Amino acid sequence: MRVLKKLYFHANGDYDRAREVMIYQTDTLTPAEQYILTSVGWVANDLEMVHHDDIIQRLIAFQQNERLSWSTITQAFIAGVGGSYPRGISTLASYHMMIHSEPHAYEETEQFLACRVCGFSHSDESWKNLSNIRYALHQGYDYSGTSVGAYADLTEFVTILEQGPIKPTLEDITTFNQLLRMLDQAEDEESPGKFEKRLTAERLVKGHAGIRRSILQALSRVGVLPNQVLSLSTDHWTNNEHILNGELLLNNTKGRSDMEMPWAGWQGKLGVDWDKARKLFGNAIQVKD
């Protein structure tokens, strides 16, 4: 991560005007740093021209990948929550999108310039440096709001799983359960923003604020954290259009570009959906209703 931070430092990139994408320079790294990247198979600039239909077809193809399952995904996610493997945080929502991917045409919502089904933005039809996105995933950020994020995530994660599944530590599992307990015991009127402040003060989840937000957003997308507007679940897909429209009904998203559905729709009185949590995370759940 130290080497990646140096590689993807904004001043280390050159803007490719023809492809309208940043390309990062490896010759600024020391030979030892370059060897670190080579030894783990890291591609500094994985440039790809992204098209909506291609992305969807590739996500559909992943449905046949035997390395991907709820078991391997949830174990990686718990390791992300606990801090031993932040890269695992993004996989929960990416996998959820992938298993429910079906062929569909790009059709914008009435109020947003993005696909009403998968969230593919009108600006996504372009060259992308997938390596830069994956660097953000390794930092614990969640890109689950778009099919491009899920694609960048899973194309790397399947290669990681070639070395074997990610196993959470006992400390990871304990932290994960403590987080669920905190959410379930929240006061009825506690808002997402207030909970995030309390979570930061408790120092339960390691790392930056983006990690904590990403975890809560991911749990919301699969319905473990209910919200006031929509009923979400791993059993079905809810179109991006309905999630975005839900933001228009909430007071805590007005004037705040950083607070988004579905996490924005949670409230303390909703707590945790334990049935969904147990179905998804199985024996890792150690707390009771």
Number of H- or I-type helical stretches: 12
Work out the oligomeric state of the chains in this entry: single chain
Low-confidence stretches: none
Helix amount, in percent?
40-55%
**Helix-strand pattern:** HEEHEHHHEHHHHHHH
Largest sheet: 2 strands, antiparallel
Q: What portion of residues belong to β-strands? A: under 5%
Mean pLDDT: 93
The helix-and-strand class reads mainly alpha
How does the overall form come out from the CA principal axes?
Answer: globular
Supply Rg: 19 Å
Q: Give the neighbour order of strands across the main sheet.
A: 1-2
How many beta-strand runs? 4
> What is the CA-CA span between the terminal residues?
39 Å
